[in-house]
Recover the amino acids of this structure.
């Protein structure tokens, strides 16, 4: 048995503990609440489920919108935990679970491609991946960061079933897919192909001697059909809403879709920070991936996700996604590309440690820490600020007193603090932060996102704001809270009067005196009671079932007698590779 | 084969990135930086302005010795809280009017996104050949300076004391001001129905007014409801008259049986200052052969008016209001310094206009 | 919710008990805020309930003695039900509490601001209350006094009907605050109505030259009854000359609106305030 720590696999539980040690304190400090774009948004969604579990119609935004437009699982779990530890800490707990699932998912995924030691290094590096820090602490994309490791956990079962027809793997894999889909639809829809195809390719290459390639493909097709049917049923209300109201609004600009080479800030934000020192490894990833036939599927998967992550820097994403290109944001592809490269990076680390021992360990550690720290430092250095930690207590207090909730309100210049106001106030807004749920023509006819950030969308944003203000009486829009004096001239010329000031003039309140009380705005997007029932039971039911299956049905793969048949890169090849990389 | 795959991936990646760089205007941008044609010189300078890179933009001027950098920046970015200080240059277009080997004149159409809506301005720029490159000759604008003087202030101001929470039952608030719609005219425009008219504050106290209208169909049901939005002067001093305009996009007159007008007035604290003179008003035909009401605003008070908003009502021979147009002025009104304005008048309206009345609404960022 | 259930149960119990109980001897009428007693309704310890229009009371009493009702327990006008329960038996009785003597007035005067010489433009409505804010329904004589800015005050007494009386008044021909007072006994309330000038009447302007500029000013602007139009009222001057048309909206100050205008060639000048137009001037420029 190998005695040197540098030559032994790192125990997975130690890696998970390291993840807990790094991300636990940051999440306990509730960092994403104050630094990220979307944390408040997800908490707002969760707060609705905490109060109206079976009614996905939320009247607090856009004069009413359906939460069936976003898979509910992550929000429902936050809602469940919130009754014990409050909304903010419930969000952090679920985010921590997501972060801790990542090394486990990466380890299991890597074990398909490389040996146990390299897989453990891949899992270790996953704790430090800059894209994770970027998505958790800057983007606040909890569903992406939770659904992805669940999806990674499902892939080995897909491999096992496709390769060796293990029925337990089929059941567990499908239910994990259902859970992943219930957490985040985009990950499932757009992440499935670049990850599943390489794994299918591998299963086809690794198939048993007496098994035909057609059998592998047939089993994969069965898996895919069952997963598709399952997701179709579990997320039925989502599909109904998306078919009833397909996203036909004018595209909203997003920096991740631009050509990153034309703007150094975008390049830094969407390329340098998420990848960090991993960029140094990419040439070797390509080289090693190309020189080992068994790693070709992984290499192609990595290359595809890497190119897609570049957004508008190459024409490929637009060609591949067509109209969906204008709806997607591409930072999540950076996470996928990073994780796709990790098995090979683990292999590189293994070879480096074998050759350079402590020097390599120090270098790799420095690289890993640097990769984690860069996006964390970028949180304060970046000119892009989420503006999500404003003190909005006065605004919430105003809305919750003296019958002010009879009217709708609008915030201007509040950035990502809007969901926090919506979470804790009883009044309703005409604005909102979720682009796909907007059905009001004042939004869909203009290429702008939230009205609260209208100025950042230029003429389109301000025209959208003008349209909304012009229809204030229709929506019962009486109160406007301004945190950015830029908006004051328009509001003043449009007939609102300044009535109150908070936080030493940081926030001003404006009122339009002739606005009638708000009335419900009719909508054909209100989910039926049956849809509400399905929404409240099937997604969370599928996740609970997935957990139970994982706990009580043992993994056959561990005891499978033909394990040795899976060929990992042989040491001879690897030595040659390392020599070539000098 | 193995090496070929790695090299192939590398080459395909580079090619893909190169294609997008080219189609995104990367090459054109590189050429623009050389400023080897007059158009490139103007585009370079304006793009630097767009990026708020004032040093670089200023360095592209041929007459830097004559143009003060602060004045150059003020010219393009505004000052004293004017509309330009609330504006971002969103896009621009450049085309030539005249060109020789040594100089050229180019027109730049600047499209700003401002706090009150889009704003378009035109600049005719002279460009001079300077060595290997072309440089822009920026017109020197000498800001008129007001002689030291004392400007009397009216000190007329109304404050409001409302009923307190502790007051006895029966203690009434001050009544809202009396306002009256003195005219209303419904017009069919190509793509909308437009209501125009005037409203007067008949009271002896200032009023904050909003006018809204509801269109009723033949069956008496509401067809549409809209408000005057920013096409009215919301603050009316005693006996002051304001035009108003209410647009109903996509509506047709034949679908409307009647109109219900609603003028809401609130009592507000207000000041009689500033007094703004609207001088030299006349309708003329501009270079694009469009009718424009032009004039000059002169702030007769001592305080700065940050964003002036001009609203004009046009009358036919019978004194009936036949149109209302408005526009924001991108410069601030300094005391006694005239600032020009221009309002578009539709051609079909202009031929019937016999008289017009201009009022000036304004925004001051220190007391809003 | 729990409170609602408790109250409902209590009321059901009390009403049921009242329906099936003997009559309690209570005074038929009581004046609000006056203490009184109810004769004993049995022997031994019992429970006493008092249900009024605004409050309910429950306490343990000795049924052999008189039950004392405190003054603060009968402050609100209306029908009260008193119930005593001891052993298996309950007794009940009803009485009315009437308003006490007038002690407060509610005076609503509308509008707060009125143009001069307007007939029936002011309305004053008086409500008579006792010390506990109960409306006094018994007819009372209220003295109404109007004190104009100038001149002596006028008084008139009016009897209330169902606690209310009102009066309509003409606004005076002279502007200024008018004081309206309502009094009954020691109680009185005062409201002030601002009587303001009407539209400008006979609006006149004149011009003179000063430092090459034409100075135009109005005569003191008054309404048709001679009141000064308030300062701040907008007067619009419009000049049409070779340079085009110039308009200036000027607020009145000390009753006069004044403006300076450069004139180019022949100029025609008009003046208006609201919908009222004044005289016109034709002047020659270039001085």
């Amino acid at each position: 048995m190998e005695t040197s720590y540098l030559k032994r696999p790192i125990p997975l539980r130690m890696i998970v503990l390291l993840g807990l040690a790094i991300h636990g304190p940051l999440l306990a400090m509730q960092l994403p609440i104050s630094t990220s774009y979307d944390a408040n948004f997800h908490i707002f969604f969760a707060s609705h489920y905490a109060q109206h579990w079976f009614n996905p119609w939320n009247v607090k935004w856009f004069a009413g919108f359906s939460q069936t437009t976003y898979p509910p699982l992550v929000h429902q779990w936050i809602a469940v935990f919130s009754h014990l530890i409050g909304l903010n800490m419930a969000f952090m707990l679920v985010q921590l679970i997501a972060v801790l699932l990542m090394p486990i998912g990466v380890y299991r995924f890597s074990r398909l491609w490389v040996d146990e030691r390299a897989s453990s290094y891949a899992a270790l590096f996953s704790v430090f991946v800059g894209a994770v820090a970027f998505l958790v602490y800057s983007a606040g994309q909890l569903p992406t960061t939770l659904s992805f490791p669940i999806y990674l956990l499902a892939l080995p079962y897909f491999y096992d079933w496709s390769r060796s027809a293990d029925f337990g793997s089929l059941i567990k894999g499908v239910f994990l897919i259902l859970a992943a889909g219930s957490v985040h639809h985009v990950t499932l829809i757009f992440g499935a192909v670049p990850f599943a195809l390489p794994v299918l390719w591998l299963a086809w290459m690794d198939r048993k001697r007496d098994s035909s390639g057609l059998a592998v493909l047939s089993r994969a097709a069965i898996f895919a059909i069952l997963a598709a049917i399952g997701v179709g049923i579990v997320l039925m209300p989502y599909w109904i809403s998306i078919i009833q109201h397909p996203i036909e609004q004018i595209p909203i600009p997003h920096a991740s879709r631009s050509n990153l080479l034309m703007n150094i800030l975008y390049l830094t934000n969407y390329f340098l920070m998420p990848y960090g020192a991993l960029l140094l490894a990419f040439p070797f990833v390509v080289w090693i991936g190309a020189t080992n036939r068994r790693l070709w599927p992984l290499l192609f998967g990595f290359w595809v996700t890497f190119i897609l992550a570049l957004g508008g820097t190459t024409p490929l994403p637009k060609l591949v996604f067509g109209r969906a290109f204008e709806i997607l944001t591409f930072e999540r592809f950076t996470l996928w590309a990073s994780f796709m490269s990790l098995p090979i990076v683990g292999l590189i680390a293994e070879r480096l440690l074998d050759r350079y021992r402590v020097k390599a360990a120090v270098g790799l550690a420095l690289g890993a820490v640097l990769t984690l720290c860069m996006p964390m430092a970028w949180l304060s250095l970046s000119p892009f600020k989420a503006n999500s930690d404003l003190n909005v207590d006065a605004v919430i207090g105003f809305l919750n007193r003296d019958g002010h909730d009879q009217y709708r309100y609008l915030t201007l210049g509040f950035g990502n603090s809007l969901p926090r106001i919506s979470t804790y106030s009883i009044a309703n807004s005409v604005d909102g932060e979720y682009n796909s749920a907007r059905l009001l023509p004042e939004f869909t006819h203009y290429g702008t996102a939230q009205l609260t950030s209208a100025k950042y969308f230029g003429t389109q944003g301000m025209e959208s704001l003008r349209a909304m203000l012009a229809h204030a009486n229709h929506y019962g829009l009486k109160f406007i809270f301004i945190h950015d004096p830029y908006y004051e001239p328009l509001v003043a010329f449009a007939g609102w009067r300044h009535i109150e000031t908070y936080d030493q003039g940081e926030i001003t309140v404006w009122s339009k005196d002739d606005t009638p009380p708000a009335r419900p705005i009719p909508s054909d997007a209100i989910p039926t009671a049956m849809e509400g029932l399905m929404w409240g039971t099937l997604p969370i039911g599928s996740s609970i079932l997935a957990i139970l299956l994982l706990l009580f049905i043992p993994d056959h793969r561990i005891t499978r007698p033909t394990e040795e048949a899976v060929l990992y890169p042989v040491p001879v090849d690897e030595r040659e590779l390392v020599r070539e990389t000098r | 084969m193995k090496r070929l795959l790695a090299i192939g991936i590398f080459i395909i990646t580079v090619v893909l990135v190169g294609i997008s760089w080219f189609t995104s205007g990367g090459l054109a941008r590189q050429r623009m930086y050389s400023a080897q044609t007059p158009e490139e010189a103007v585009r370079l300078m304006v793009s630097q302005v767009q990026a708020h890179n004032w040093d670089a933009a200023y360095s592209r001027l041929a007459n830097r010795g004559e143009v003060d950098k602060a004045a150059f920046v003020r010219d393009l970015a505004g000052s004293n809280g004017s509309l330009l200080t609330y504006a971002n240059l969103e896009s621009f277009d450049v085309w030539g009017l005249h060109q020789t080997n040594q100089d050229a004149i180019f027109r730049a159409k600047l499209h700003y996104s401002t706090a009150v809506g889009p704003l378009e301005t035109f600049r005719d720029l002279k460009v001079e050949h300077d060595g290997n490159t072309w440089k822009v000759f920026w017109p020197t604008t000498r800001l008129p300076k007001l002689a030291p003087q004392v400007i009397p202030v009216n000190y007329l101001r109304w404050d409001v004391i409302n009923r307190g929470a502790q007051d006895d039952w029966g203690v009434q608030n001050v009544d809202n001001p009396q306002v009256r719609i003195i005219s209303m005219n419904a017009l069919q425009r190509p793509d909308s129905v437009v209501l125009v008219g005037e409203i007067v504050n008949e009271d002896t106290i200032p009023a904050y007014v909003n006018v809204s209208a509801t269109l009723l169909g033949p069956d008496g049901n509401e067809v549409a409801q809209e408000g005057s939005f920013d096409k009215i002067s919301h603050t009316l001093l005693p006996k002051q008259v304001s035009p108003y305009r209410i647009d109903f996009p996509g509506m047709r007159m034949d679908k409307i049986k009647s109109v219900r007008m609603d003028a809401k007035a609130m009592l507000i604290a207000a000041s009689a200052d500033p007094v703004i003179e609207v001088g030299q008003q006349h309708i003329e035909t501009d270079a694009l052969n469009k009718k424009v009401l032009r004039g000059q605003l002169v702030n007769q008070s001592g305080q700065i008016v940050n964003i002036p908003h001009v609203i004009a009502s046009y009358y036919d021979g019978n004194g009936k209001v036949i149109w209302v147009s408005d526009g924001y002025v991108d410069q601030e009104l300094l005391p006694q310094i005239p600032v020009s304005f221009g309002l578009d008048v539709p051609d079909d309206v202009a031929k019937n206009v016999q008289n017009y009345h201009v009022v000036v609404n304004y925004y001051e960022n220190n007391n809003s | 919710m729990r409170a609602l259930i408790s109250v409902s149960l209590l009321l059901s119990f009390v009403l049921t008990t009242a329906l099936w109980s003997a009559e309690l001897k209570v005074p038929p009428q009581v004046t609000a805020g006056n203490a009184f007693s109810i004769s004993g309704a049995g022997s031994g310890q019992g429970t006493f309930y008092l249900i009024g229009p605004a409050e309910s009371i429950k306490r343990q009493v000795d049924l052999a003695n008189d039950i004392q009702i405190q003054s603060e327990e009968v402050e609100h006008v209306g029908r009260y039900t008193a119930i005593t329960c001891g052993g298996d038996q309950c007794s009940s009785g009803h009485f009315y509490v009437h308003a006490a003597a007038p002690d407060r007035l509610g005076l609503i005067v509308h509008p707060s601001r009125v143009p001069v010489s307007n007939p029936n433009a002011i309305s004053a409505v008086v409500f008579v209350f006792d010390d506990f804010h109960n409306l006094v329904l018994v007819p009372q004589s209220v003295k109404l006094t109007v004190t104009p800015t100038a001149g002596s005050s006028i008084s008139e007494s009016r009897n209330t009907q169902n606690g209310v009386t009102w009066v309509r008044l003409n606004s005076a021909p002279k502007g200024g605050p008018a004081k309206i007072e309502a009094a009954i006994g020691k109680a009185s309330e005062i409201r002030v109505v601002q009587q303001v000038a009407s539209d400008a009447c006979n609006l006149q302007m004149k011009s003179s030259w000063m430092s090459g500029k034409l100075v135009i000013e109005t005569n003191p602007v008054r309404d048709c009854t001679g009141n000064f139009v308030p300062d701040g009222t907008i007067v619009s001057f419009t000049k049409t000359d070779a340079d085009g048309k110039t308009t200036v909206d000027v607020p009145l100050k000390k009753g006069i609106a004044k403006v300076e205008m450069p004139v180019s060639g022949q100029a025609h000048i008009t003046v208006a305030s609201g919908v009222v137009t004044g005289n016109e001037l034709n002047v020659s420029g270039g001085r």
User: Anything to note?
Assistant: Residues 558-582 of chain A have pLDDT under 50 and may be disordered. The CA atoms of residues 290 and 296 of chain A lie 6 Å apart.
